[in-house]
Amino acid sequence: MKRFILLGSIALISIASISSNRAEAKVVPVPADSVFINGNIYTVNEKQPHAEALAVKDSRIVYVGSNQGATAYRGPKTNMIDLHGATVVPGLTDSHYHLMGVGEREVTLNLEGTTSLEDFLSKVKARVDKTESGKWVTGRGWIETFWSPQAFPTKYDLDKVSPNNPIFLERADGHGAVANSLAFKIAGITKDTPNPFGGEILKDKQSGEILHKQHVMGAITGVSGNCKAASKASCPEVPPGFGVRQSSAAFPATIQQFCTFPGP
């Protein structure tokens, strides 16, 4: 697995100051504090997406380019660092970022940007139509507060577009989710199921039937009486959780999404 080096204190905007060979010929650079060579450097610059070397002076990137060009920034006190092919990405500075949640959204059904319940259901149906009957459809990214009109989806809405595929779709913030009747059946959740610790299964006030789950971090898990009484190993994770292969796909998807996010 390739190593990732996060240059946390170096601002993303510094990467824009990429020196050209022509400029190097006219100006003698000030020796850098550190020079990184032999790397796989992700620049977030469409015209020069990758480079093999960079130079840092006073905690700012002053050069990104070739190993040969970086030698101009080498001085008697410069710290030379051989990356041996390691990948370098911009420092990720974010006060609140759903690292794996965003990655999961990118590799499953991305519902970010849906504008209404109808739009949401249309995207879900399109995915269901391409999915083998009986297979799970999972996704994330919808948020009803941005819809017009605002309307929290229910299992009845999902049942209309997916009677034969279990569905589990997390809200953008991860604090809520909606599933269809088949998903609740597989999980063993009924109108008599008590609320899980720290969460709530929202039910119709008249019939007591389940509508959706709210304030729940994570997926629906089997909570029937038999499962709770049995060992944890016998309780299937519903829907199937991320395995090693899915996790390895989610993290790069997160990095790609973050690095291509439009700046100010």
The CATH topology of the largest domain is Diaminopimelate Epimerase, Chain A, domain 1
Strand order of the largest sheet: 9-10-11-12-14-13
Query: In percent, how helical is the residue content?
Result: 25-40%
Q: Beta-strand level of the residues, as a percent range?
A: 15-25%
Shape: elongated
Tally of helical segments: 8
H/E series: EHEEEEEHEEHEHEHEEHEEHH
End-to-end separation in angstroms reads 33 Å
Unreliable spans: 8-25, 214-236
Q: What structural class results from the helix and strand content? A: alpha/beta
Mean pLDDT: 76
**What is the rounded Rg?**
25 Å
**CATH first level of the largest domain: which class?**
Alpha Beta
**Strand elements, count:** 14
What does this structure look like?
The structure is a single chain. By secondary structure, the protein is of the alpha/beta class. The chain has two domains: 87 residues, Roll (Urease, subunit C, domain 1), CATH 2.30.40; 144 residues, Diaminopimelate Epimerase, Chain A, domain 1, CATH 3.10.310.70. Helices cover 25% and strands 22% of the residues. The chain has a six-stranded mixed beta sheet with strand order 9-10-11-12-14-13, with helices on both faces. Strand 3 and strand 4 form a beta hairpin.
